[in-house]
Amino acid sequence: MDFTVELLKWYEHHGRTLPWRETRDPYPIWLSEVILQQTRIQQGMAYWERFMQRFPTVEALAAASEDEVLRLWQGLGYYSRARHLHAAARQIVERGGFPTTLEGIRSLKGVGDYTAAAVASFAFGQPAAAVDGNAYRVMARYFGIETPINSTEGKKVFAALAAQLLPRDRAADYNQAVMDFGATWCTPQSPRCADCPLAEACVAWREGRVGLLPVKERKVKMQTRHITYIYVRCHGMTALRRRGPGDIWQGLWEPVCYETGVGEQAARELSALLQLTAPPRLIKKDVKHVLTHRILMADFYLWEPDSRPALPAGYVWIAEEELDSYAVPRLVEMVFLEVRGKR
Questions:
Q1: Residues 6+ apart with CB under 8 A from 340
Q2: Of the residues 22, 33, 200, 259, which is catalytic?
Q3: What span, in angstroms and rounded, lies between the C-alpha atoms of 267 and 168?
Q4: What is the mean pLDDT of residues 233-246?
Q5: 4-18, 115-129, 265-279, 293-307: the lowest-pLDDT one
Q6: pLDDT digits over 34-67, tens only?
Q7: What mean pLDDT, rounded, does the chain reach?
Q8: Beta carbons within 10 angstroms of residue 28's beta carbon
Q9: Is the dihedral of CA 48, 54, 55, 61 positive or negative?
């Protein structure tokens, strides 16, 4: 059985209809690839449509402020993607247009090997193999490869195999076929092996190892951080700060935050720091929020002083009615929802 031939036959009947596949314009194609990193297509579609409506061209995206881009991205997580998207848009405009070569696309901010190959093949028909999580899974199972996909050696092995399987005259169709097959047929859980057109020659199916492939090296141990948020409300105003570089949520906004103590100890320490005359009101305790390599445990407090208190450096007063104009992480959204319920 010829893997590539059979996969393309499957794609002709089962390939997904997606709006960014109806164009050869690199901008909407690139935008879709950035949004769909770490994001399911059902969720990503709505964001792609909103971005295309608000920023219909790469020039419009480049002209936007970072705050505008982060606000529109809010809810997708992994905010470095949004910052890189914005920076790359400005690179493209400065260079006079979207790069047309694999190397040129790869040089854009935040663009890795997969995204560069995807855009190069979909927009410009270049024979570049785009290896995403779906492609890793399909190849690992079909060929019975046990090399960990997230290892240096694994990336080399799968990249070489993908390049070997790629039909140079149908690179875009092949890349889309592998993605769709992995996303809808050869799925991580409950794959459709019983009626799979590739099952006859699939090593994992034949040897009963479908659930064991692909192999991944052990993940980095999750770290737990404790955060205390105090939402300060004073005559329709509240205090926010923008998070700085070098940590989670760079460039996003948050209310008064404290991370040294835990639970009531943190509240006491923060109260002393702010010179509170009365303790803040606890409105939500032990809120769990999971990031890639971190577990955040948060407590939410509400403090309503009669006059504006002195605040730590970096905080500014914002009208509560304007909060929706500020890009915030999901955990802070949860703070705002709880506080609005306490009016």
A1: none
A2: 33
A3: 62
A4: 94
A5: 265-279
A6: 999 988 999 999 999 999 999 999 999 999 999 9
A7: 93
A8: 21
A9: negative
pLDDT tens per residue across span 176-206: 999 999 999 999 999 999 999 999 999 999 9
Cα–Cα distance between 85 and 81 in angstroms, integer? 6
Rounded Cα distance, 105 and 58, in Å = 14
Residues 134, 121: Cα–Cα separation, whole Å: 17
Q: pLDDT tens-digit profile of 130-160?
A: 999 999 999 999 999 999 999 999 999 999 9
Residue with tokens 């034949």: 206
Query: Using CA atoms in the order 145, 146, 150, 151, what is the torsion angle rounded to 10 degrees?
Result: -110
Pairing of strands 253-254, 237-242: antiparallel
Give the β-pairing of 316-319 and 237-242. Answer: antiparallel
Backbone angles phi, psi at 254, to 5 degrees: -155, 155
Give the separation between CA 236 and CA 259, rounded to whole angstroms: 26
Q: Would residue 33 show up in a list of annotated catalytic residues for this protein? A: yes
| Nearest CA among 110, 132, 77 for reference residue 294 | 77
The dihedral region occupied by 157, where left means phi > 0, alpha psi between -120 and 50, and beta the remainder, is alpha
Residue whose C-alpha is closest to residue 4's, from 170, 185, 203: 170
Q: How far apart are CA 280 and CA 305, in angstroms?
A: 9
Structure tokens at 157: 């092995």
Tokens of 34: 């950035």
- Helical axes 66-73 vs 41-54, angle rounded to 10°: 150
